[in-house]
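CWF19-like protein 1
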Amino acid sequence: MDSPLKLLVCGDVQGKFNVIFSRIEKLLKKGNKFDMLLCVGDFFGDGVVSKNAWQEYKSGAKLPPLPTYILGPNSIQQLSHFEENQDAGFELCENITFLGKKGLFTTSTGLRIAYLSGCESPDVGPKQPHCFTAGDAQTITASLDTSNAEFKGVDILITSVWPKNVTSYGNPPISDNCKSCGSPIVAQLCKDIRPRYHFAALEGIHYERVPFRNHTVLAENARHVTRFIALAPVGNTSKQKYLYAFSIMPMVKMNAAELIQQPPDTTESPFKVQTSKTTPANSNNGEINQYRWNMDQPQGNNRKRKSNNNFNNPPRKQSRPQDWSCWFCLGGEKVEKHLVASVGELCYVALAKGGLTWDHVLVLPIAHHPSSLDLPDDTVEEAKKYKQALVKAFKEDGRSCIFFERCYRTDHMQIQAIPLPKDTDCETVKKEFFKLAESHTDRQGKPAPLELTELPKQTDLKQILPAGCPFFHVELPDGSRLLHRIQRYFPLQFGREALCSSSILNMRDRVDWRSCMTSRDQETDAAKRFRSFFEKHDFTADDEDDV
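Structure:
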């Protein structure tokens, strides 16, 4: 069976070769495997430091850790790094290849990557060697025979320039300037060749648009969606995302039903109106006024983020869905961002509203996944890293930590993390949970004991529970685990009630979270306090420092 390719894409390198390659080497040392690196935007920088760094790679003194493919120059100043004839690609040094002015790169596995280098040529004056015209884009569409009814699209499109009006109908970027930026030629190219992923840079920000359709509903047969992702410059001071990792199965190896899956947040195409230099694309008037959390701020607070095996997997199963009305989707309207304490690539940590203790926190996926049973593997791994970091932080403070998850009457996964006094005995905790389960009554007050089972420590919930199955799961400090498979009424405060018992936290008055709520100012102060407490162990805050 064919395996998906695992790719990395980065934004403007701007001559920071050691920064990007060191970061990738760290990922590889941790067991991550990638097939290639694609670079969009400005690869070269103008300074002396940049030129000296490049010389080390050009001479062979240093070797990029992955086969690296770059686009051409975006300014006259960068032309000196490229040969006079840029139409055909060539190897700049070992493991770094310039793809060429425009064309289609097909890997041995059948992955098709279309590319267009440079910036759009101005309407007046002679064409500059670092610019492209509509004719260059048409060369790509002609080579793909896009007018043929059999043409489906390409897997990836890489350009340095954004497509004009790409934000229409979608989530807005963090910069208002980007709502009007971009090239009509690139927009038309994207519309014509229908890439599954389109990457660009040059605007100095990270922006991940919600997917958009490549067909008109009820008027055309369903097609795959396009995901547009713009990346920030490497090593940017605002800590926005510049490195994007994902896995992708070549289109030619996917069945039609899998390929045309439509994520729940899919919008109309922003290029519904003809987008050419003479006919501009539709304006932003129909744009949804919603904030999309931004990933390497990365997607999130102005804190550092670690690229932890961030594979954005094929649409069928791992499409990073978002629900704008969800209280816990970090890009949603309702999420209370003042409670957020740490943001990673795929998960985040936030203070619990009405927490049992001031440092009672939640570990949540950024995308809209109802439970840990539905998480993609990469998100599972990052959630695990957060849990390990929390355990270390509380341990250093002389306490232990218990986790529980309730997949019942909730549609966004929340793993509760509550610190316990250092002298808390795990057997005592287990007894309280079993005692509470045994004494459970139904809505009519009749005895209805809950079947609580102790699991082997290494059990994978996905192997014993089907997706969508309601459950309650506890992880104790000694690694013990308890599971209840919910089949009927289940008390929402079950986990809190057990922990509030006199033998554990002795907080009988704090079972209901609503009675523990504080003011927004107090919540904000608590979040700041927790960030300071957790900072030393927050793995998202150290990756950029190391590279």
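The chain has two domains: 5-286, 337-546.
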